Amino acid sequence: MEGEKRPAPYEGLFADGHLVLWTLCSVLLPVFITFWCSLQRSRRQLHRRDIFRKSKHGWRDTDLFSHPTYCCVCAQHILQGAFCDCCGLRVDEGCLKKADKRFHCKEIMLKNDSKALDAMHHHWIRGNVPLCSYCVVCKQQCGSQPKLCDYRCIWCQKTVHDECMRNSLKNEQCDFGEFRNLIIPPSYLTSINQMRKDKKTDYAMLASKLGKQWTPLIILANSRSGTNMGEGLLGEFRILLNPVQVFDVTKTPPVKALQLCTLLPYYSARVLVCGGDGTVGWVLDAVDEMKIKEFTMNNYFSVGPDALMALNFHAHREKAPSLFSSRILNKAVYLFYGTKDCLVQECKDLNKKVELELDGERVELPNLEGIIVLNIGYWGGGCRLWEGMGDETYPLARHDDGLLEVVGVYGSFHCAQIQVKLANPFRIGQAHTVRLILKCSMMPMQVDGEPWAQGPCTVTITHKTHALMLYFSGEQTDDDISSTSDPEDTKETE
Ligand SMILES: [Zn+2]
Ligand SMILES: [Zn+2]
Ligand SMILES: [Zn+2]
Ligand SMILES: [Zn+2]
Q: Which residues keep their CB under 5 angstroms from ion ligand 1?
């Protein structure tokens, strides 16, 4: 009897063991499955992030597409997945990698191929055309069928039916459509790049190809303003324009973004700010910072060969200061930079690149390379520039009459000749206010021996008490010497 009773505790233990096992299973298994799923999901997410990061497309995730959407790879109807906010491709998660490899995004700059520069073809992508778009061929509505169908050019936004698509359309030149006057064409940037390599900066000539109406638009939007509506807005603009001209100010500060203006012809660019008051203020500050540079000039201002000499000299002195401790050596080196400039010829045809106004009157310039504005009679190591050789009659130069003397030089050799009194400068005139408009290209400038490279700008020189004030407006590209202040408190007070 007793023997029969003994196994009972073991049995109970055995049954307990079962219970524990089952309990463990029923608790652990779901935990394990959940853990496994989340691990897989995070791995997939990492993988997707990796594709996003390396991709040339501007991929973004969405949990729900707002329109009926079909995957550009497998053509299935999809509810969620990724879309490119530059070219508008839409894809499900599984096809993302394929889509990324198979389709090109908007090329913000063309590959350096001279043939491609003049004629850019449409860039067609298939499917998901916007609602209410019409075929360029048959004028009927596009994208009305519930499947992946019809084409849209990602530059000009033209749409065409599958059955209306033909080779002639594929080889047709893209005219950038409705917004052609606002878009910076990829070919423009390629040409600019080439010009920079060739050390040419005549952007106006390049822009003239695009016509007088061309006023490229720069978008500065804050993705964080307006309950994150900025993000969507940025995408819309990237789709309609060249993505290069659309900036999220939280990622690229306005001062940096506005540097794009320096690649555009003078007075051509327009800036659209999307955001709250704070964003607008931020951008306006950046514009001020770029536009108004103010200097006090005591002796002279110049643009052209002597400023270039000073600039080259300055750059090399910064590199090897010990070399420049001797005065005689300094003069020799300076002279060397003068002659080097003859080779560089960066200041050629200055008269075509600038407009000069003396007391509000436009002055026609002969073929000059440099302009010098003097407050005192002396320039370049004690030479009386205005008088020149002293063999001609000229209005008297005095530094207390409030008049500025403006002279032109024909080149660095002419500069040197004037310095040793072997030539006369070209006397342009005397004035109270001198305005110099640099229309295009980079020019060497200097104020009282402080040189810098200056992009398109307007320089206004007027008297302020007994010092001269220079106002720079336009695109400053070189952040050299400067002290910025409010334009209001620098009125002419002579
Ligand atoms: Zn797919
Ligand atoms: Zn894309
Ligand atoms: Zn097109
Ligand atoms: Zn059609």
A: 71, 73-74, 92, 95
CA dihedral 344, 345, 347, 349 (to 10 degrees): -160
Q: What pairs with residue 373 in β-bridges?
A: 301, 406
Condensed to tens digits (0 to 9), the pLDDT of residues 218-275 reads: 999 998 877 778 888 899 999 999 999 999 999 998 888 888 887 887 667 888 988 8
ipTM: 0.94
Question: What is the CATH architecture assignment of 293-490?
Answer: Sandwich (2.60)
Alpha-carbon dihedral of residues 378, 382, 386, 391, nearest 10 degrees? 150
Eight-class DSSP state of 392:
S
pLDDT in tens, 280-305: 888 888 887 776 556 667 778 888 88
- Ramachandran region of residue 359, left (φ > 0), alpha (ψ -120 to 50) or beta? left
Assign 301 to helix, strand or coil: strand
Q: Where are the domains of the chain?
A: 110-119+177-291, 293-490
- The CA 225 to ligand 3 mean position distance, Å, reads 32
DSSP 243: G
Query: 121 C-alpha vs ligand 3 centroid, how far in Å?
Result: 7
CA of 107 to the centre of ligand 2 (A): 9
